[in-house]
Write a structure and sequence with these properties.
Elements (H helix, E strand, L loop, with lengths): L4 E6 L2 E2 L5 E5 L2 E5 L7 E10 L2 E11 L25 H15 L23 E9 L2 E7 L6 E3 L8 H17 L13 E8 L6 E7 L7 H11 L3 E8 L11 E7 L2 E6 L2 E6 L8 H14 L5 E5 L5 H6 L5 E6 L2 H13 L5 E5 L2 H11 L2 E6 L8 H10 L3 E6 L2 H13 L3 E8 L9 E7 L1
Parallel strand pairs: 4-6, 11-12, 16-17, 16-19, 17-18, 19-20
Antiparallel strand pairs: 1-5, 2-3, 3-4, 5-6, 7-8, 7-10, 8-9, 10-11, 12-13, 14-15, 20-22, 21-22
Length: 443
């Protein structure tokens, strides 16, 4: 069936999830990889209710902030949506998107977005799927909204060493007659190649996610990786036999070295396990944590909820009387305890368990002044909002990588008596539509 072409569509703005938005006969058209000011012929690829989604069939006139994306697979790879927009404009667009999502709030509570000092090759962690493309084993990044792998050689978001080491792994797969995983028939073994990197020490962890516990010629693979990059700190095999979208399984084997590396923020050192949460962009992290720290009242009890390895809690501990960190990942809690000892910080306590299961007892046993939330993308459980509201905690500092779920939670907190004091975005994810946003609420 012939696809409909919308001629001379002007892109008015960018919206959350990265689309350029234009209108045809008052009907919204969401266009992939479009830039405000673009004049295009748009090809409709599918319709959803009264909304159409399109790609650029012809660029008639570029918007003033459009630049050439310096990536050979931009547009097919789903890794970044805004590599074709100059960085200063990206920041302004993200700021506008946050204001649109939180449009019910007055202008005077918004602060300007803080940008990253580095906006390419900034990621300290990546996991890339492995599979077969045109009869050859490859690694890469999924195409947008699919599980089709787009092979690439030089991603602009993570350090170049990730691609070099990924290519070495694929070379080993070919030479050892090992098989990459096939999602359709669930055969094959290597599912993902992952990396964690310290910009401070240049240490690298290599993580090989496999379907089975067997992996051919691992000693030769480790030697190949070390010859390629001697600063490799550890090589880990993670076993995930389940046919699910979750990348990591529950079992792992250490093939070389150690399963953690060290990094730091200011004078706080962190031991980071290969599967523990740590902010992805170290070039904006300190700005974010300083902002959170400013909101903490001196000599008070603070909860660091969804704490990961305790990076926020440890950073703010010198201002608080006590920090209580709650985290549901056992490996992250163990790292947090080691980080506490590594930095000789005595006023932070780590609790292992789900936030919704532990927060009530923590609040009842301590005179909590404020709580820092940094949840996963799905946001807060309703039970957490209900407990915090009943406990009448004075201040909430809500850090989120998903403003869409954040606003949902904020509205529930407002219903329970809280008011929004300030809203400030941080660009944790340059060249993508993703936004880190901090909302401060008070009773």
């Amino acid at each position: 069936m012939k696809q409909e072409i919308i001629e001379k569509l002007e892109i008015k703005k960018l919206v959350y999830q990265g689309f350029g938005l234009g209108f045809s006969n008052s009907n919204p058209i969401f266009v992939y990889y479009a830039v405000p000011g673009d004049l295009i012929n748009a090809k409709i690829i599918y319709n959803k209710k009264k909304v159409s989604f399109a790609v650029i069939d012809e660029l008639l006139q570029p918007g003033e902030n459009r630049i050439k994306a310096d990536c050979e697979v931009f547009g097919s790879c789903g890794g970044c949506e805004w590599l074709n927009i100059n960085y200063r404009a990206q920041l302004l667009y993200k700021q506008s998107i946050v204001r649109e999502i939180f449009k019910k709030f007055p202008d005077n509570i918004f602060s300007d977005i803080s940008g990253s000092t580095v906006f390419k090759h900034y990621r300290n962690k990546s996991f890339m799927p492995a599979g077969m493309v045109e009869g050859e084993p490859v690694f890469g990044i999924y195409a947008k909204n699919s599980h089709s792998i787009i092979p690439h050689r030089a991603c602009k978001l993570h350090p170049g060493i990730f691609d070099i080491l990924g290519s070495a792994v694929i070379t080993h797969i070919k030479n050892s007659n090992e098989k990459v995983y096939n999602e359709v028939n669930r055969h094959g073994n290597l599912k993902h190649i992952g990396f964690r990197y310290s910009f401070e020490t240049d240490e690298v962890l290599v993580i090989l996610v496999t379907r089975t516990s067997k992996l051919a010629f691992t000693k030769q693979l480790v030697n190949l990786l070390l010859n390629t990059y001697p600063e490799i700190t550890g090589v880990i095999q993670n076993i995930n036999p389940e046919p699910v979208n979750t990348i990591l399984g529950t079992r792992s084997k250490l093939l070389y070295g150690k399963n953690w590396l060290e990094d730091s923020i200011d004078n706080i050192k962190f031991r980071i396990n290969y599967n523990s949460f740590f902010q992805i962009n170290p070039f904006i992290m300190k700005k974010l944590y300083d902002y959170v720290k400013e909101e903490i009242s001196p000599h008070t009890v603070v909860i660091d909820a969804y704490s990961g390895i305790g990076s926020i809690g440890l950073y703010i501990a010198d201002k608080a009387e006590q920090v209580i960190a709650i985290e549901g990942n056992e490996a992250a809690v163990k790292d947090g305890l080691k980080n506490r000892d590594l930095n000789s910080i005595v006023n932070i306590k780590f609790i292992y368990g789900k936030v919704e299961d532990k927060i009530k007892s923590v609040c009842s046993q301590n005179k909590v002044d404020s709580i820092v939330f940094d949840p996963p993308r799905k946001g807060l459980e309703k039970a957490v909002i209900e407990i915090v509201s009943r406990q009448r905690i004075k201040k909430i500092i809500y850090v989120s990588c998903n403003p869409a779920t954040q606003i949902r939670d904020i509205e529930l907190l407002i219903e329970n008596g809280y008011s929004v004091k300030s809203i400030k975005p941080f660009d944790m994810f340059p060249n993508t539509y993703h936004i880190e946003n901090v909302v401060v609420l008070e009773l």
